[in-house]
Amino acid sequence: MSRYDLPPLASVRVFEAAARHLSFTRAADELGMTQAAVSYQIRMLEDRVGAPLFIRRPRAVELTAIGDTLAVAASKVLDQLNSAFEAVRQRASGVLSINVIPTFAVQKLSPVLGRFQIAHPDLATRITATRALVDFASDDVDVAIRSGNGQWPGLRCHELFKARFTPMLSPALAERHGPLRQPADLLKLPLVDPHDPWWSAWFSAAGVDASEIMKRPKSSMGDQFLEAQVALGGMGAAILTPEFYRRELETGQLIQPFPLVEEMGQSYWLCYAERRRNVPKIKAFRDWLLAEMAGTAEPVATTA
């Protein structure tokens, strides 16, 4: 059994407008309805109440005592409902929720997000840095940045840059272990997360038999930015995406000992629900981020 025994909201809206104007014609004009439709909705409401709400005269209508009581209540309730919807609408449109891979959040997004805030001062941002895949159907998320092939059903995805990878290490580690003249020399070093498939793929592309790394103790930092911290601390060589560490490479905090950069057909993507592609705050962030990435990334591709 329903908690509330209420008439249809459409009938209440029509009644409130007719009571406010004391005119079925003006109520019809306000609501974009015909006068016959207004009369029908009010008749339905009167049947539900069990008493007339208006006194119908040849050229005007007047509220009955019951109608007057209901009109006051209806106007108050609709005002409250409108205020509640407006508050929710403002909250929904004024906060952009971003779900993003931690490394991207630390290395790419957080250093430049201030420029988005300056360009859109009325739009607050809420960032969740996690590797967990977001469910746009149930989670309170507007956009996500994830890695993969960009083929996710129901999502519009824009390629930001390729997920390339190459070994990096600190100058101090390179100095301790001697010069690195060829890729095989990396096997003399401690490797961060040696079981990461990127290591095997890179060594294979370099023509190096690196099967022995699979016998090394298994470890996993979980995210690139944590692996990079180990490398920056001089405790091992890490396999990293150059796009994330340009600043560290330019300042000499990390070195890339060999020019070979490999990839496995994946990229980083900006994604959002296809059905929400025209939501203003999503369009604003999409346009800004793609422009922000344009100076450093390859030409943008968009999945169909």
TrEMBL record:
Gene Ontology molecular function: DNA-binding transcription factor activity; sequence-specific DNA binding
Domain (HTH lysR-type): residue spans on this chain: 7-64
Listed InterPro entries: LysR-type_TF_proteobact-type, LysR_HTH_N, LysR_subst-bd, WH-like_DNA-bd_sf, WH_DNA-bd_sf
Key words, A-Z: DNA-binding, Transcription, Transcription regulation
A UniProt-annotated Pfam family: HTH_1
Keyword Secreted applies: no
GO terms, biological process: DNA-templated transcription
Family per record: Belongs to the LysR transcriptional regulatory family.
Protein name: LysR family transcriptional regulator
Organism: Notoacmeibacter marinus
Source species taxonomy: Bacteria, Pseudomonadati, Pseudomonadota, Alphaproteobacteria, Hyphomicrobiales
